[in-house]
Design a protein that fits this description.
Elements lengths: L36 E2 L7 E8 L9 E9 L9 E6 L7 H12 L2 H6 E6 L11 E3 H4 L10 H22 L8 H14 L5 E6 L1 H13 L3 E7 L8 H25 L10 H13 L4 E2 L2 E5 L2 H13 L3 H13 L21 E3 L2 H8 L7 H14 L7 H8 L23 E8 L5 H10 L4 E9 L8 H13 L16
Parallel strand pairs: 4-5, 4-7, 7-8, 8-12, 12-13
Antiparallel strand pairs: 1-2, 2-3, 3-5, 6-11, 9-10
Helix pairs in contact: 5-6, 7-12, 7-13, 8-9
Keywords: Hydrolase
InterPro entries: AB_hydrolase_1, AB_hydrolase_fold, Pept_S33_TAP-like_C, Serine_prot/Carboxylest_S33
GO molecular function: hydrolase activity
Length: 492
């Protein structure tokens, strides 16, 4: 999912000083104008940067350059305004989205009437990316400790990795939270000279949207959010609801395979085949197709399935599972592991996820007993997917971090924003549909929720219904009627 660093060499900088800002990040002072130049990857798009404070509580302190890209409205005579976009992650590049993906993603009507502006959130891509030692990352211990001793080893590793990433990344590491990104986004608005902006956020980009609406709701014309994040959840709620929706996607896959003759597992007990494959993987008996001398872990297999559910690519997953059933491990080469103390000044690689996630979520299991209890709850909720592999790994990566976070969970408090449009798949593998209903319930006066009754993580371009709901809202301010729903695509 992460598309980082692609424009680090080609994005020009404005070279201006940081914009003045009040300690809370709100300011009516215009930011420096962005100096736009043709993007190296596509001269039809414009790239630039904006120099901003690393710490909005100290706006006169150290700065960084926020990378920005823009596709101007193709029908400037009918231009509505600016549409800021964020594709999620945390860690996906908004610059890459605007330059390479926006033309295929948005309808022609949206492209005609909006300047589509993407940005790399601080710590991501070309915006002073968070980097960590490659060798140290390769030594990450299991996210499933089996004892207090292994839990302490995980915590020690995370603390060591955190210090390593801070050393490679500088002070931006301590300010990569979403609330800081929200203040950056309003600085973009000021630099563009816009009184109001429009915003489209997907997945983790919905958290940016929600918190922008909290802080700067009076500066919004429209906001469309797809695959919504619920930032009010505690650790158990977050992990269990993530596991529930991953398991639901597995059941959707099983149902599809049972009724679809082209499925590579059609006519077989798909659940039994799957459980048997994971059991073999637990015993080290499944060959890694990319490295035949190595065993493939059950966790690696569930990760492949989890990613396939995003599409969903059920056909590809069925073929993959069937192929693993035929491969047996002939010889296993033990992995070469380094001690943490052996890792020196080796090449660093972009790794922004935990710098963001662990500062947005106060989820810190204090010992093995607490962590094991959360893991058991995940497994009960998702016995076949064994929890949500990505979310579990995310939480495990915060073990040992300081308890204080920059942007802890809270119920959204949106008071000044216009109506916000939310869309969400009923069978989203990553973001539980209940997250959207809970956010909508907490913000009922300012949000409208349109369910997409199919599967997959993306929503906007899924059907004519989903696309038109967003387009009519962005272009004409048309709010869907209460109870409006979008039927699943035929492929689902």
């Amino acid at each position: 999912m992460l598309a980082v660093g692609a424009f680090a060499a080609g994005v020009p900088t404005s070279g201006g000083a940081a914009a003045d800002a009040a300690p809370a990040g709100r300011s009516s002072t215009p930011s420096n104008a962005i100096v736009w130049k043709p993007c190296p990857q596509d001269a039809a798009a414009e790239c630039g940067s904006l120099r901003l404070p690393i710490d909005w509580a100290h706006p006169s302190g150290a700065t960084f350059d926020l990378a920005v890209a823009r596709r101007k409205a193709t029908d400037p005579g009918r231009r509505v305004g600016v549409l800021l976009v964020n594709p999620g992650g945390p860690g996906d590049s908004g610059v890459d989205f605007a330059v390479r993906r926006a033309k295929a993603h948005f309808s022609a009507d949206v492209q005609k009437r909006f300047d589509i502006v993407g940005f790399d959130p601080r710590g991501v891509g070309a915006s002073q990316p968070v980097k960590c030692s490659q060798e140290l990352l390769a030594q990450r211990p299991s996210a499933y400790p089996r004892s207090q001793g292994e839990f302490e080893q995980l915590a020690t590793f995370n603390r060591t990795l955190r210090q390593d990433c801070r050393r490679h990344s500088g002070p931006i590491f301590d300010h990569a939270d979403t609330l800081s990104v929200v203040h950056d986004m309003d600085a973009i608005r000021r630099s563009l000279g816009e009184k109001e902006i429009n915003y489209f956020g997907h997945s983790y980009g919905t958290l940016i949207g929600q918190q922008y609406a909290e802080q700067y709701g009076d500066r919004l014309r429209t906001m469309a959010l797809t695959a919504n994040i619920d930032h009010s959840l505690n650790a158990r709620q977050f992990l269990v609801s993530s596991a529930v929706t991953a398991e639901d996607s597995f059941q959707q896959f099983v149902t599809w395979c049972d009724r679809t003759r082209s499925c590579a597992l059609h006519g077989r007990d798909v659940t039994a085949v799957w459980d048997g494959l994971l059991a073999r993987a637990d015993r080290g008996e499944v060959q890694d197709p990319g490295n035949p001398a190595q065993a493939l872990t059950a966790n690696a297999i569930t990760q492949v399935a989890f990613k396939a559910f995003y599409g969903p690519d059920w056909d590809g997953l069925a073929t993959y599972v069937a192929s693993l059933g035929a491969g047996e491990l002939k010889e296993r080469r033990p992995p070469q592991r380094l001690r943490i103390s052996e890792v020196g000044d080796k090449p660093a690689t972009a790794e922004p996820f935990h710098a963001v996630f662990c500062q947005d979520w106060r989820i810190r299991p204090k010992d093995y007993r607490e962590f094991a209890g959360l893991t058991r709850a995940e497994l009960r909720a998702a016995p076949h997917m064994r929890g949500s592999p990505r979310i579990h790994a995310g939480v495990a990566g915060c073990v040992g971090w300081p308890y204080k976070v920059n942007n802890p969970q809270h119920r959204p408090q949106i008071t000044e924003a216009p109506k916000i449009l939310m869309l969400h798949s009923l069978h989203d593998p990553a973001n539980n549909y209940a997250w959207a209903t809970n956010v909508h319930r907490q913000t009922r006066r300012t949000t409208v929720l349109v369910p997409y009754e199919g599967a997959g993580h993306s929503v906007y371009g899924r059907t004519n219904c989903t696309r038109e709901a967003v387009d009519d809202y962005l272009l004409e301010l048309k709010i869907p009627n209460a109870g409006h729903r979008c039927a699943p695509a035929a492929s689902s």
